[in-house]
Amino acid sequence: MSRRHYAITVQQASLESPALARLAALTRESSERLRAVEALIPPLLRPALQAGPIDGDCWCLLVRGNAAAAKTRQLLPALQAHLRSRGWEVNSIRLKIHG
């Protein structure tokens, strides 16, 4: 039996796979969370942050460098409170330092 291979978009693939659809939804939600708290983050710190994975009630922020992580740690209580006020169940925000 021969198979034809053809390219499909991520959106098409997620429609055919419940696991991929869930992953796409979590990625979208993580980006929405970061946009929701953006006003609370100092403008010079914003480029150092990226939305990371969501694991239950824990959200991860990817932070570029130790200095940015230290400053972001100070903002975590305000970020969590703001997200909860917007309806997201976020009991903790984890920081992961990258590149």
Kindly describe this structure.
The chain is an alpha+beta fold. The protein has a domain at 31-98: 2-Layer Sandwich (GMP Synthetase, Chain A, domain 3), CATH 3.30.300.180. The protein has three helices and three strands, in the order ααββαβ. A three-stranded mixed β-sheet has the order 1-2-3. α3 links the parallel β2 and β3. α1 crosses α2 (18-37). It starts with 9 loop residues before the first helix and ends with a strand.
Short description:
With 99 residues, this protein is an alpha+beta fold.
Architecture blueprint of SSEs:
Elements: H1 10-16, H2 18-37, E1 49-55, E2 58-64, H3 66-85, E3 92-98
Parallel strand pairs: 2-3
Antiparallel strand pairs: 1-2
Helix pairs in contact: 1-2
* Order of helical and strand elements: HHEEHE
Mean pLDDT: 90
Work out the helicity level. 40-55%
The largest pleated sheet is described as:
3 strands, mixed
**What's the shape?**
elongated
From the alpha carbons, calculate the radius of gyration and give it in angstroms.
Answer: 17 Å
